[in-house]
Amino acid sequence: MYKICLPSSKYRHIPKIKLLSQTILSILIYVELLFGNSVIAKQRPKKNELDFQEVLKENIQYPPMVDKCPLRIVGGQKVDINEVPYQIVIQTYLIRNAYWILVCGGSIVTQRHVVTAAHCFPRRLWNRKTYRVLAGTGKLGSTGQSKEVQKYPTIKRKILSCFRHKYYNEEEFKHDFAVLTLDSPVNFTENVQAIPMLQPSHGIQLQINGLCVVSGFGVYTNYKTSKSLRIVCVPIVSTSVCIKHYYNYLQNHQFCAGTQGKDSCWGDSGGPITYKGYLVGVVSYGAAQCGWSPSVYTRISSYTSGENVPFVANRCVTSAIYNLLYINNILLFFVYNLFSKHVVTF
What we know:
The protein is built from 5 helices and 20 strands. It is globular and about 45 Å long. The chain is α+β, with helices and mostly antiparallel strands and 346 residues long. It has a single domain, classed as Beta Barrel (Thrombin, subunit H), CATH 2.40.10.10. The chain crosses the membrane at residues 20-40, 320-339. This is Peptidase S1 domain-containing protein. It is found in: Secreted, Extracellular space. One of its GO terms (cellular component) is extracellular region.
């Protein structure tokens, strides 16, 4: 009655259960409402709208980060969090407050806002209380807890609201862009900083073969996610070359980057790709086997041009049914990888 749904047999995305019948999904939600601990009304965020222009006004005041790629070319290297202090981790738990697993990455853009990918959060079966955001950490333990002993402690925040682009289309990968509002502001330190999103006023254009920094805790070898934060420098790929890999999937609000052996991968979704110190993209999707083809990124400048970007709040239900489906999804994901070709990537 369910299957692992990758964007196609050739493309990778965050794995998720795809129910064949919307009726079954409706029944599951109805049962959850009858027997769960709370109802949708208690879990759903307030019906406030996200004013993305206000986010941009605050974000533009932050200075660009140091561009890492001209300093050294890396094929996947561990780094300290103070080298990419805008990187955050989105986690959910399998065992309440005991075993946390990686969901996606993201980028701090203000003290209260994080930019990530819309596909990191299902449209319906999602409970904000099962998620958290970690900032200021470059190492994760086997249970998903931060393992760093550092000057500044890891910052943990709950998600107050999740806003995805109104026209996000998970089947065609359109507008894979979301903004999270944290339950309280983060205090900036050398390990926690906001990164400016690329805006037209910066006068910077993405150049073919220009080097971008991708960072995250995603899969890097043997289908294992990294316990340490890693970065890799990847070249921007022309649209004509990218279309050869992704055909009609590629949209004008996306761009490609990567080369053989240097790529983003599973678990890096939603994370940052930067160019000349600015946030220029969000990790969206790529080939099922990482490191063989360039990956696709949501182009930030498509949403910072001054036009009103429409966002809608994500709907939420209680966690019992969702967690059951999520665990099944993880099991099926590893079964799929067991029979997939071994590839070593960043």
